[in-house]
Structures are given as C-alpha cells and as structure tokens.
Amino acid sequence: MGASLATHHVLFLVWFLPVAFSLSFFFFKAESISNVSCNEKDKQALLTLKRGLTDHGHVLSSWSDHKDCCIWDGVFCDKKIGRVSELHLNNSGLGGEISSSLLQLEHVNYLDLSGNDFNGTLIPTFLGSMYSLTLLDLTSANFSGLIPHQLGNLSSLRHLSLWNNSDLYVDNLRWMSGLSAIQHLDLSDADLHREVDWLQIMSKFPSLSELYLHYCHLDSLNPSLGFVNFTSLRVLDLSGNHFNHEIPNWFSNLSSSLLELYLTNSSLKGNIPPSIFNLEKLELLDLGLNSLNGPIPSSIGNLSRITSLYLDQNQLNGTIPKNLGLLSKLKTLYVGKNSLTGTVDERHFQKLSKLKDLYMSEAPLFFNVNSNWVPPFQLDRASMNSIKIGPNFPSWLQSQRSLRFLEMSMSGISGKAPGWFWNWTSNITVINLSNNHIECDVSDILLSSTVKLLNIANNSFYGPISTFLCQKKIRKNKLEVLDASNNLLSGELSHCWKYWQSLIHLNLGSNNLVGRIPYSMGALVNLQSLHLQSNSIYGYIPSSLKKCSNLWFIDMGDNHLSVIPLWIGELTNLIVLRLRSSEFKGYIPQQICQLSSLRVLDLANNSLSGSIPNCLKNISAMALPNFNIISFSSMSFIYSYIYGSYVENVHLVPKEKEMEYEENILLVRLIDLSSNNLSGSIPTEISDLSELRFLNLSRNHLMGKIPEKIGSMKELESVDLSQNHLSGEIPSSMSNLTFLSLLDLSYNNLSGRIPSSTQLQSFDALRYIGNPQLCGDPLPKSCTIEEQSLNRSPIGSVEDDSKNSSFYIGMGVGFATSFWAICGALFFNRTWRHAYFRFADEIKDWIFVTTMIKMNYWKR
Length: 860
Known about the structure:
It is a single chain. The protein is built from 10 helices and 56 strands. It is of the alpha/beta class. Strand 11, helix 3 and strand 12 form a beta-alpha-beta unit. The longest helix has 33 residues. The protein is globular, with a radius of gyration of 40 Å. One of its GO terms (cellular component) is plasma membrane. It comes from Quercus lobata (Valley oak). It holds the Pfam family LRRNT_2.
C-alpha cells in the first residue's frame, strides 16, 4: 500500500514539474510582453499628429508624453514588438490637418478616421505610402476633391471605405489595379461618372467580396456586355445611380456567391429579366423605386434562400405569382406601390412561416382569404393601405400576437370593429385604420400603453370624446399622434388632457364637438399641431395654450370663437395659422407680426374690423427667401416612425378653389383676410413681402390706392382685391408680376388705363368689371387721350416721375429767380424803371391799334 502511494507521488511529480515549469515560463513571458512599452518613435509621431488636429471633444487628452502611448485612447499596439498597429479615431470630433508623421508608424495596419470633420480638405496623398495598411476607413469625414491615385499603392489593403464624402470624385479608376488584396470596397457618394470602364475594372479583383457604389453618378451598366463575373462577390450595392435602361442579362452570371444585390432607385426600366432569379444563393434582392414594368416573373420561385425581397414603387403589373408562397425563408416582402392586380389568397403565403414585414400598400389588389384563415406567420408589420380587404373586418389579425405596425387605410372595411381588436396584442405601436367605414363607440377603445400613433380619421366612430380621453385604463398612455377627424364624435372637450402629455399631433377636426376649449389643454406642452376645425366650439381661446410653445400648426377654422388673443405672438414657431370662418370679432392684433416663421395666415370670412397691421412686413418667412428653411425641414410636417409616416394636412383657398395641402405646405406663403370688415388703406409695407404667393383682401371696406410697389412682390401667383373701395390707377409695376395666374380687381373705384403686359391683358374682363373709369384691354372700353396720359409706361415710371419732379422744381426756382431779379432791378434803378414802363406803354398802344385794325377788317 505504501509502495503504491510512493509510486503515485513520483508519477505526480514527473507530471507536475514540467507542467509547472511551462506555466511559469508562459506567465513570465506574458508579463514581460505586457510590460513592453510603445516605441519612442511611434509616440513622437502620434504627438506630432495630435498637434495638427483640432480636438474639440478632448478625445486625445490621454495622448501625453508622460504616458505609454499603447494605453492612449484609440491607440492599439502589437505587444510582441511594442509598435503601434491600430488607430481607432472614429467619431471623435476631430478636424484640422492630418500630419505626414503617420508615415513613421511603420507597423500600423488599421487606420479609422471615420465620422470626423476635416472641413472639405483633400485626402492626404501620403496615405498611399502606408504600405502596411489592411484597413483604411475615411467614411463620413468630410473629405473632398480627387481621390488620390496613390491609394492604389496599398497592395495589402483589404478594406477601403470612403463613403458619405459627397464631394469626392475620380478622373479614372485604373490606379485601383494595385489593390490586389481588396475585399471590402466602398466608394459610395463619390462621383465616378468619368470612368466608363468601372465595371470591367472592379470585376478584376479576385478577392473582392463586398462592393458598395451607391449614389456614384454611374450612368450605365453596359447592357451590351455578354458576360460579367466577380469571382468572390457576396454583396453588390449599385443603388441611387442613373442607369436609365433595362437590367442587363449578365446579372444572372454575376457571381455564384452573391448574397445581396441592391439596385434600388437607379432609374431602371423595362421588364425584370427572369434570369436574375437564377442567382439562387441570393438572400436579399432590392429592385425598389425604379420604373420597372411588366409582370413579376414566375421564376421568382427559384430564390429558395431569399429572406428580403423589395419590388415596391415600380410600375409592375399583372398578378403576383403564387409560387411566391414557397419562399419559406422570406422575412421581408415589399410589393406595394405598383400596378399589380388580381387576388391575393392563402396560397401566396403557404410556406411563409418566417414572414415578419409585409408591405402591399397602394396596389389595386384584392386580399381575399377565408374568414377562419390562420396565417403561418407572425407579422411585425402589416402595411396594406389602399388594397381591398373588406367589407368584413380581417379576423386573421387576431392571430398576430407580435404585430407592432398595422396600416389598413382605405381598405374598404365597414361595419363594427370587433371587441377583441383593441386588446388582442400588447406590442402594437401604430394603428392606422383611416378612410374606411368602421363603426365604433370611442368608449370601447382601450389603448395599449405601447401605442404611439392612432389614426381613425374618416370613419364612423361615435360617442362623447370625454369617454375616451378620461378612461382610467389608458391614463399611462404614450400616444404621440391622435387623428380622429371626420367622425361622429360629440360632447365637450374634456379636462383630462394632463393624461395625454406625450401628444405631438392632435386632430379632432370635422366632428360634432361643442363647448369651450378647456384650459387644461395647456398641459400639452409637446404639441406641435392642433386641429379643432369644423366643430361647434365657442368662446375664447384659453391663454394656457401659450404654454404649448412648440406649436407650429393651428387650425381652428369653422367654429364660433370670439377674438384673436394678444398672446398669439408668443407662439413664435407658428408656421400655419388658420382661423377662417370662426366668427372672430375685433381687430387683427399687432402681435401677429411677431410670428416671423408664419407662412400661412388665413383669417378669412370673419367679422374682423379696423385696419390691416402695417407691421406684416416683419413676418420674415414671407419676406426673405429660404428663411429658416433648415428649421422648417426639421419640423414634423411628416411624423415619421420606423415603417411609415403620418402626414399633416390643411385646407386652404389659394386661387378661389379649396385645396388640400400636406407636406407641400412648406411651399405655400399665403395671406387671406377676405370677407371681413377691414377698413383703411392697404399698407404700403405689404410690398416688402417679396416671397408671398397668394394675397386675398377681397370683400372688405379698404380704401385708397393699390400700393405702387406691388410689382416688387415677384412671387405672387394670385391677387384678389375685389369688392372694396380702392381708387386711383392700377400701378404700372403690376406688369412685372410674371407668375400671376389669378387677378381680381372687380368692383372698386379704379380709374385710368389698365397697364400693358402679357399677364394683365390675359385675364377675363370680368376681373376688372365694376370700375367705370377703367379702360383698355381686356375691357371693351377704349381709353381717351386724356385717360391714356394717366398711365405712364411701366418701364422707368419711377425714374420718369423723379425726372418730372426735378424739371418742375427747377422751372419754379428759375421763374422765381428771374422774377425777383427783374423786379429788384426796376425797383432800385430809376432810369431802368422809366424805360421799362415807357416800353410797356408802347407795347400796349401797339396791341390796341393792331387789334382795332383787325376788327375793322373782319367787319368789312
């Protein structure tokens, strides 16, 4: 027993000692390696680099001469040799000049400067001498100019990314032949149009697996080429170019390894070649946003590995092939916004058990499935706007427990919404059932706390609005968009708005709401747009709304309100203010002029009195071109979410016809004060609104002249000043309004000749009727010589006035000078005075004698 134990100890020592020695050696070596500090030459090179860079974010604060550079932020070393091997300086807020000291970093193989701002400088040519580089990433670093040919010297480079530097360009790509090891190449957003042989050059890289050339101004895929082959290509992105021809047949032989092909938004046209579906390894195919037509080829069934298929926003027609339902790995299917017709039924989804994202909107399809159909998939998104689903409510939705985005607007659904609909899933974020014929008591709506957008506009939802707003079960809601306009909602606006403070857009227009606007609406501090139009709301607009300082859109038209509040000027972000037909009385407050961003001021058809404020010229958005355009574009005119959008809309009357404006409201600049009791003159300062497009002051009691400088408002498309008491001539400067397509000056007291211009003579005579003293084309009344003289030529009329004024002033001064010079001489010089009067007497006698002789002659 003891001998056996001793034997075991000996064996253990024989095993343990070598192992222990090996481990000790390993840890000693590891410790010695970890203690290797960076090379002094590398440190000094990096410090020189730092001195040339601007570092507003202090990212390089750790780069100090007193520290080991291998522990500096963004610096990585090869610890075997103690040399810097990688620089990760991406998204560091750096700028300035990149020093050539980088060349001293002989072992750097990884250089990432992406996400910085080098202020449009050139890419340094010396980067092409950093021969150890395997990765060079200059993405989104604000470089510009010619991509240096020297980069072609980097024969070890495997990854080159220059995308999102929009001012880069190439004169040719032949220099790229030296990039023999390249695997990932991204030149997106650079201008490559000067190189016509780009395709042949790119196809010669034996190791290239990912090629990204989106938005590179390429204009041809060389359809005449019979064969193009990329040996190792797995990803090809040519989206956003301008090919303007059919998809070439050579795509079918492009690469046996191709997994992803992006041709979206590339001006492609013609039919989809069936051969493109021979790329059987494809996992993603994006042909969206082109002008492709014809049917979807049935060979689409060959794409057995496809997971994402985008054919949306083309002109495809015919029916959807049923073998689409055999693509068992499909997760994303976009076929919307086409001209596809026919029926979509269960067979189209037969094996699509992995489908998550379905986009079929805006195609004249009929979704016809059995009422007890249970889909094989669990959708995350169902976007099915403007395809026929109804009349019955789609019961298959009840099985979609993971659904987050539901869009079924204009789908022909009618009848009562089933009770299960409002609580069948706890994940729903977006619900859009607008423009159907759905009936539902709003008290039955139980919103999940996850819902951010609810659009039930243009349906038959009914009941008191307060029964929905004040439910205890939805007081913790996160709703940002609520559109319940054009329904049958009734009752007063509740005082429960404190539970809805996440709201950004609220539209309750065109219902049967009554009562006052509650003070509690001031709690909606995040609100950007408020629509209460076309109800029976009365009284004052509460001052609490001035707390909603983010408001840029107010529509309270067609109600029974009282006065425009003075605090309206505090809503300085307002862009659209529509208060027409709401029985407003009193004056237009001067504070409206504080709304410098205002583009639409519609106060028409009220009982407003007093004069038009002179300060309207202070509305900068109507006076200055491109005023605050960046801020406007950031406004939520379109409320975007991950898979869709909610678009604001407003009804205006720019040219005597009501029109609906959506995101194009940014293009409108309108003042409509028509059908009020306004008096006084049109302020001359209104001529300073040089960006105004639509001006309507008709049906008021305005007097005086049309502002002489109205012709400086060169963007005007419509001017209606009819049915006032305006007098004087039509300003000759109006002939300068070249965009004018509607003019109405009828029923005033205007006089004189209608100025000559292409526009003014092109309008119907009815546009000038009711001005008895007007003459000239297009009126049948011709002008007399006296009337013609009333109007001067529009060209140089102001200059002529100035010259005439100078002439008359000069003549008056000359007359006065001469008169007093002569009279003064006669007064002070007696001899001259006697001679002058003798001369006057002789002239008088001569006139008398001559006149008598002539009279006697005529008598005979």
